[in-house]
Every structure is written in structure tokens, then in C-alpha cells.
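Question thread 4412

I'm putting together a teaching handout and wanted feedback from people who do this every day. The idea is simple: show students a protein as raw sequence, then show them the C-alpha cells that encode its fold, then repeat with a second protein so they can compare. Below is the first pair exactly as I plan to print it.
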Amino acid sequence: MKALVNTDVQAVPAVHSSWRVWGGLLAAVVVWAGAYQANGPLWQWAIYDMSGFASDNRLGSALEFFFFDTVKILLLLAGIIFAVTVLRSFMSVERTRALLGGRREGVGNMAAAGLGVVTPFCSCSAVPGFIGFVAAGVPLGITMSFLIASPMVNEVAIVLLYGLFGWQVAALYVAAGLVVAVVAGWVIGRLRLERWIESFVFETTLRGQPVDPSQGLGWTDRFAIAREEVRTIIRKIWPYLLAGIGIGAAIHGWVPEGFFVRYAGPNNALAVPVAVGLGIPLYSNAAGILPLVEALHAKGLAIGTVLAFMMSVVALSVPELVLLRRVLKPRLLAVFVGVVGTGILAVGFLFNLIL
């Protein structure tokens, strides 16, 4: 009887500890969701109501873009890194590699691209998912298919394209985006370039010490690892993140439609490469860039040219490349740009030829 009493007494702190862990997680989720919902209205109020900028003022628009996107992407980074790290803690590197080995690479590329389509990430916020997949042992090429498809093929853009141009263009957009993501990921996977990923991506630590996620961790340790991963990754990439968003904000609102029409118009044989080159410095998601796509098409740009422009904006934006540089070494980053850019150019030329 004495032993039974002692056991019950010892169980109380464990129950309290469990409530603290899950209660803390719930509180963090509520705070995160509230901050994410308040982000847009907060900066609109601060920039336009408090600071006095007019809604059509270019500087005000750039400032709103910078602060809104900085907070949004930091929140997304924190949430995605935390969730992916907790999920990764249940899977050892060896087990993941066994499930997604080279013999399944083609199927894995298609599955990863399909997952990317249904995840509502912009190019920058897809990066932590890329980090988590690579760190968990998912082959680089398969992970690249997710990284490309996630921002490039967007369900909102599909609906808007259907409304603007009809189902044929919407279907071609989906098919082209998936083909680029699958083929580009497969090519990068065949090159075996894992050695050109920064080493910190593969490190999982708890209180500064390396740990093996497969060794029977409890929820407290899993959450602790996830919090530490959030701090580590954001601390390493935040200067690159701010620099990338700053570049996007600097040119936000100054998109030269007349310049596009002049140099990427229907009479220019190099219209597609020019459109891709002009799209890379911009930063937006597929839905956000569609109004400009519609305006350019109305001014006479061919559908292949404007689709190539849109794909370059959402899959090869400078802010994304700046952020990826902290994760990928220069050679792998150059291969990524080259392979994806080639696929986008091929889509543009093909669409202009058949439409």
C-alpha cells in the first residue's frame, strides 16, 4: 500500500508537466494566429492612417510591403520550421532515405510537386519546408520539386486564370508548372549535389548538443528541439531575409509596364527571355502578380511570354534566391536557377508556338 501511495504522488508532477507543455503550445498557437491575422490591418493602419501616406503613394506602398512581408514570412518561417521539426523528430534519417530512395525518385518528384501545389506558400515561406525535408533525409531532387511547385502552381492563381483566360490556359498553367517542378527536381537529383548544401541544415540539436531524433524522445524534448531549430535557422537567415524583402519592396509599385511592352512585345523574338529576366527581380505570389499579367496580355504580350514572366516571379524571385543562398552553396544555387530557368523558358516558347 505504501508503494502505491508513493507512485500516485510521483505521478502528479508528470501530469502537471504535461498540462504545461500542451497548454503552452496551445497558447503559442493562439498568439501566432492572432499575430498573423492582425499583421495586414496593423501595417495598413500604421503606414496610411498614422503616417499619413496616401493609398497610391509609392513610398507608402513599398513600406507597407516591406513590414507586412517581413512579419508574415517570419511568422510562417517560425510556424513551419516548428511543425516540420516536430514531425521530423519521429523519423530517423536512415528510415526516411529507405522510404524515398533513388528507385522511387520519379514517383517521389511527382508526389512532392503535388504536395507543393496544395500548400499555400510563397517562394520564401517554402524554404523552411525544403530545409526540413532535406534534413530528414528526403533526396534533394524530390525536395526541389516541392520547392519549385509550391510557389509556382497556386490554387488561387488557377481559379483566377480560369476566370481571366479560360480553362485551357488554366490547365496549361498547371501542367506546365508541374512538368517544370518534376523535371527540374529530377535533373537536380540526378546530379547528386547534396554536398553543396550548407552543413547546418543537417544538424539537429537540443540545448546546443547534437541529438538523434529517432531515440525515443518525449513531447517535451520534441518541442524543445523544435523551438531551438526555429531560433537557430532564423538567427542564421534573418539578414538574408530582410535583404531579399528589401529588394522586393524597393521595386514594388515601380513595375514598368511600358518597358515590358517595348522589349517583350509580340514582335520581339527574345520576348520570353526578356520577360523572365524582368520577372526575377520582382517578388510576389502567383495570385498577386496576376493583375499585372492580365494588363500585359491586354497590351499585346503573348500568353507564353506572360506565363513565363509569372513563373519567373514566383519561382525565381530575388528574395527567394537571397534566402536560399543561406541554405545552398553558390554552385547548387546556380544549378537551381539554371535548371528552373531553362524549364520556364521552354514553357514560354512552347506556349507562344501553340497558342
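The second pair follows. I'd like the answer to focus on this one:
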Amino acid sequence: MRSRTEALLRLQAVVTTPLALVFAVAAFARSSQKQKFSEIDVERINIVEPDGKLRMVIANRSRSIGPIFKGKPFGYPGGTRPGLIFFNDEGTENGGLIFNGKTEDGKFRALGHLSFDQYNQDQVLYMQYVDNNGKRRMGLTIADRADVPIVEYLDRREAVNKMPDGPAKTAALEELRAPVDGVPRFAQRVYVGRDTSKAAVVNLGDRLGRTRLRLLVDSLNVPRIEFLDENGQVVHRVPER
């Protein structure tokens, strides 16, 4: 009786094991195939490479991702940037599309922002709409940044912020803000948009980020061209008055 039972168990194992493998392979094949949905509700979608590196994250506010440098979080935690964040081949954030807007205590704030980052740095090309209860500006910005990895700068800033107040901390902060090899840490070179004074403007800046040429039509519909010196003073205007 015992040998008969053992024989039946062996036969069952011989039959069921290949069947289990077939079902597993079939399930994997189905999961690898393209799926079609008419509608889907989701809080976050991660687009990843075969090795798991992030290439894009689409998320609501609570599940939005914080900054990532070569696969490691830095700066501040997630939960503040609803929208879409891009990552480069090394898993480092290199731009995104974020947006928000709401009314509180009878006043509203709104933001729309599409940006592209310099390699291992912050945004250098971005379109932005910022609205603080009707005081709004919107436009395209092109900027220069020093070739210093953003995580290196943030680590230094955190160390300086922990220093006790005094001359040493003041000097360290000034050094932190100083240009790197003559290149500012941030310099706005081009801005095309509408500013908070309701003027349509084109600002062209020098390598230090100082506006030197301005083309505008102001809120009274008056057009003019202004040339500025390095201190921001208008040295020539067309028309002169």
C-alpha cells in the first residue's frame, strides 16, 4: 500500500511540475506583452531602464519624488512636486514639468514650470508661469551655471549653515556665493516674457547675469529699447524720451 502511494506521489510530481513551469512561463509572457487600457487611475508611474535606473516619474503631490543624483536622493524629500520628472542615463534628475494652483484665505497661488537642467546641475532652460494672487509673470529663461556638481554645492552649504554665527560663517557664505573660475553660480542670459509690471520684455544679460540690453513694451503700451551699464543704470534709451 505504501509503495503504491509513493508511486502515485511521484507520478503527480512528474505531471504537475512541468505544468507549473508552463503556467509560470505563460503568465510571464502575458505580463511582458503590451497592454491596452481605456482609462486608468494611478498615483505614480515610474519609467525605468532594464537595470532599474529611473528615466521618468509621473506622480501626484504626495507620491512625487525628491531630487536624485546618480540614483541617490539629495537636497529635500519628495511630496512637493506634482507632475513629471526626467532623469538622464546615470539616474540623475535633469528636468521636469510641475504645476499647482489653489486658493487659501481668499488668495490664490499658481505655478506652471517646464525645465531642463545642466549636466549634474540645476535648470538652465525653463518656461515658467508664476501667479501670486494676480501678480504674475510668465516667460522663457536661458541661463548659465558654473560647472560644479549640485550635490557638492549643497553639501558645502549645509556645512556652512551649521557654523556658528560670526565672521568665519560670513566669509564662508560669501565664498559659497562667489563665482567659480570667474563663472557665476547662476547667470540669467536671456529672458523673454511678461513681467509683474505687465510689460512685455526681452532682457539680454552679460556673462555675470547683469541685464545690459532691454527691449520692452510697458503697461502703458509704450515701446522702447534700453542699454544698461554694469550697475544696472540706463545709459541710452530709444527713443530718448
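Top answer:
Good format. For the second protein you could add a caption like this: Residues 70 and 79 are 20 Å apart (CA to CA). The mean pLDDT is 89.
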